Description:
Blueprint: H1 4-14, H2 18-40, H3 45-62, H4 71-83, H5 89-100, H6 109-123
Helix pairs in contact: 2-3, 2-4, 4-5, 5-6
Amino acid sequence: MAPSAALLESFDNAGYQYRQVLKIVREWYSHTYSHLCYLAHADCEDVASESRQFLKDFRNEMGFESQSEAELVATILGQALKRGKINKSGEYYILKELENDVGQTLLSDEDFDIVSEMLRRFENR
């Protein structure tokens, strides 16, 4: 994870590319939030407790819920599942990250199989 100063510098230097930087930040929120939700329900109570506390502290310190910024991956997932295919390479990379994330909380087993099949079709096109 890059330090926030590096991210802010990238954003400041992005100019017209600011939307891409924001998209990257939203992806990070999405994947990180998914990890924290997984850890918040871990068997190890110390880890679970720390994860829940982090999310609570985040809300108190930042003034908004981490989940409110974590909708990008869920939105892209929903759109791809509805279409039954991946249209763009950006969608591919987001869903590939989700497939590789053993702690992800967005996909049911059935949806995981569907997404995996869509990823293979996109790779083989």
